[in-house]
Design a protein that fits this description.
2 copies of one chain form a homodimer. Chain A is of the alpha/beta class. Chain A has a domain at 27-73 and 159-321: Rossmann fold (3-Layer(aba) Sandwich), CATH 3.40.50. Chain A is built from 12 helices and 8 strands. Chain A has helices at 2-21, 33-45, 77-89, 100-106, 110-129, 134-147, 163-174, 187-198, 237-246, 261-268, 303-311, 318-321; strands spanning 60-63, 178-186, 205-208, 213-217, 220-224, 252-255, 276-281, 314-317. In chain A, strands 3-2-1-6-7-8 form a 6-stranded parallel beta sheet, sandwiched between helices. The longest helix of chain A is centred in the N-terminal third of the chain and has 20 residues, at 2-21. The radius of gyration of chain A is 22 Å and the shape is globular. Chain A starts with a helix and ends in a 6-residue tail after the last helix. The relative contact order of chain A is 0.15. The interface between A and B is large, with 43 and 43 residues. Chains A, B: It holds the Pfam family HAD.
Chain lengths: 327, 327
């Protein structure tokens, strides 16, 4: 009797299930060919029994961070953190004033620091981030993230993230994709906030690094950050980092600059699996920044934009494709 | 009516559920303090609402491979693979005969090759594994694993694994632990078989590596294995590798030699979380090998065995603790 009474309600509930799943997974994206391309790709590779189906363990997606998941203007945020650290630490390290990158920094020579895709900036980062334990470093980053604010948006840096990209991360994970960060930023820096901000755990972050040093000190294990064996996870370094850390070829890659071109090429060209490449093109000076077409800017997007049509990459026009930018 | 008829059966089923969960998760382990220590630790950290509870995302366990998950005698298996490769490749590379490690190899000078925890062997590995794409390398390893046999056990090397450790991996994963390999072996080598043999995916393997080189060749992305930036994931390198690749401190570490001591120290000493360290002591010459007490042997276990009681590490006596060794 109870069963019979329940039956109509169960059927009613079942009837609404497809509607529940039909909720727009990317509400901050305007409808159009780019949003459609994302959804088509995800639906294609998750449809069992088709030649395009990709098993769950191979659903690897990789995301650049600076300029792809969060802003990178007026400078990549880790550079702003390093600048704040340098100001604090410089009085105790007069010898650093001889370092060409520090000199460039003290002259605010952004062009020199940004040359070779931030080589100078990364050296400053290495200098200001070494000689301490990872726990001390984490504490400093946490403190900075809790207090520092973006100069234009007047909010914590962890809130200068792109709402449409947060939705994309969730959408991919809901379809059993792993979502990895593959960024030129320092891996220890990103690990402090990526879990809370993006839902990406420390073990799914590939970034620039120097090796720590291990020793037993007073009977306790101690790691110390160094500047040894610096690996820069940018340009051709990105596929190298992906192979070394992850060991699988991604099927989807998301970036915003020439620094991401090699990663997207590695993901999409000659891949036996269906694959997807996407570039976030910064076109909205009003709501964010329109900087990537300027060959002198950080986050330069020239060659990657040129090859995009040839390889079928989706180029997101922030101004037109995104309803909302910051949450 | 249907509901009422079903009810007694449902209750009966529910009554048996606890019994189902009481099935021995480690059937190849003899009952005793070591088996109990493992189960006590897992039950302790998974019991919600207690101070010892560890959230799922922090349940990281790390396993050495050679001598911990599979045999490492008469030589670590990757060294046997490298020897087979070297025999094949040497006629085309006469210049290699000048390399001190190759010389030691050609004289079968195992002591020289094994000195400094296999430094010479690792150089041979680097030499025989470089200049090809990871895909070519994977194909060679697969081919070797499919045909080569262990000289004593007369079975494929992937079947020379420890049944009790396979059960331990499953038991930890059933309790939402991540099970990582942290081994001196080459990461590209282990990634070929670890998923099929241990259920450990490529992205949860930390090993020795050289960086690959990335280039676009005839319009296609190509990775090439090199001998550049060799990182040896052994001794103090293990905590370094764990920090760099994984970015979380493990709460359980499993090894069998002095090469694992730093990793187990890093896991168990001064860890704010409850932690567990275990050493597999090779004591069974009849069913496997009893080699680790010999200071000249590969897989030497001396200092790590000395400090084990002080740090409360569990020392598994293979002869007495394991009912079965190979599956």
């Amino acid at each position: 009797m109870i069963v019979r009474t329940c039956l109509p309600f169960c059927l009613l509930f079942a009837a609404f299930l497809p509607l529940a799943f039909a909720v727009d997974p990317l509400p901050s994206w305007n409808d159009g060919p780019n949003k459609k391309a994302i959804i088509d790709f995800v639906e294609k590779v998750t449809k069992a029994g088709t030649p395009d189906f990709v098993p769950v363990e191979e659903r690897i997606s990789v995301f650049d961070n600076d300029g792809t998941l969060w802003c990178e203007n007026p400078l990549p945020f880790q550079a702003i953190f390093a600048a704040d650290e340098l100001k604090t630490l410089l009085p105790d390290h007069p010898e650093w004033r001889e370092d060409p990158s520090v000199k460039a920094f003290l002259k605010s020579d952004i062009a020199a620091l940004s040359a070779n895709h931030y080589k100078g900036l990364l050296e400053i980062i290495a200098l200001t981030h070494a000689g301490i334990t990872p726990d001390e470093f984490t504490a400093r980053v946490k403190q900075w993230l809790a207090t520092a604010k973006h100069p234009r948006f007047d909010r914590p840096f962890t809130e200068c993230v792109y709402q449409p990209m947060l939705e994309l991360l969730s959408y991919l994970r809901a379809n059993d994709f792993q979502t990895w960060i593959v960024s030129g930023g320092g891996v220890d820096f990103m690990r402090v906030f990526a879990e809370g901000t993006y839902g990406i755990p420390p073990e799914q972050i590939i970034g620039s690094y120097s090796l720590v040093r291990f020793e037993m000190k007073d009977g306790k294990p101690v790691l110390t950050k160094t500047v040894d064996s610096l690996f820069i996870d940018d340009k051709g370094g990105k596929p190298v980092g992906i192979h070394t850390f992850l060991g699988r070829r991604p099927i989807a890659a998301f970036g915003n600059s020439n620094g991401d071109q090699a990663m997207i090429e590695y993901t999409t060209i000659d891949n036996p699996r269906p694959s997807f490449g996407l570039i976030v093109h910064h076109t909205d000076a009003e709501r964010e920044y329109a900087y990537d077409a300027n060959p002198k800017s950080t986050g330069k997007l020239t060659t990657a934009l040129e090859v995009a049509p040839k390889y079928g990459w989706t180029v997101v026009d922030m101004k037109n494709d995104w309803k909302t930018i910051l949450p």
